[in-house]
Amino acid sequence: MEILVARSAGFCFGVKRAINIATECAQGAEGEIYTYGPIIHNPQVVKELEASRIYTRGKLEELEGGTVIIRSHGAKMEDFTLAGDRGLKIVDATCPFVKKAQKIVSLLSKEGYFVIVAGEKNHPEVKGLLSYGGSEIMVAASAEELKDMPHKKRIGIVAQTTLSVEKLREVTSFCLTRASEVKVFNTICDATKIRQQESTEIARRVELMLVVGGRNSANTNRLADLCRAIRTNTRHIEVAAEISAEWFEGVKRVGVAGGASTPRWLIEEVVKKINALTTKDSKSR
Ligand code: SF4
After folding, report:
1. Which pLDDT tens digit goes with each residue over 36-45?
2. pTM score, whole prediction
3. 213-237 b/e with 16+ CB inside 10 Å = b?
4. Catalytic entry in 120, 125, 170, 198
């Protein structure tokens, strides 16, 4: 069995940075340490952090004191105010690429553009981005979601950092039919672009594609969708234990990719399991 592993699989820069900030915080801080929402969308890593006294809380209102870490996706502007009002020590681990997208939203709003955040409305990063705009702002993940939008004078588009280029292109093309001026900022981060590119290249070369990462991770889900569009035989798994020997019947080459929030050790466990179930040959692309 030949195993092609995406070189990019493993934590991205922003996730590594946020986890380092959280662990450093746990070493020095007195009192409780919380992350506002899971620090990354990977249940295995969140469990590991609990062993270092770093707990996840979904509501700032529940916290009576201590330190709150803002994760790499960022948070809404009003969340920072609320945390401050509650006397919490705020440690901001927002990824610099997300910060940049927040600044662009704010700037476009100030310049009078109708802002469209291309992304998923329920994703915490997108909710955060929306809070940096004025009242003339909306979120859309596809052209379909924009079909009822009336003509606008000027539209400014900002992408969720983990969006696919295809989706940004779809939203942009549609907006060109609704305004005479459309300003687009491609805020999809490099880590996302590289992962999507490498994973889809691998998907073209294999009979089975495994995408490893949290089922609650938007970027892993997107990666799996992109791979599935190329290779129907794509499976999204969280851990190696999910892999079944039957998947490899008639398969000579298998691809392994992981989202930006998937730790490298989970990828290594998956490779080990494939080897145990098939052959011992593996190579990284
Ligand atoms: S995926 Fe990109 S924007 Fe998001 S945390 Fe990682 S590096 Fe930052």
Report:
1. 998 887 788 8
2. 0.87
3. bbeebbbbbbbbebbbebbebbbbb
4. 125
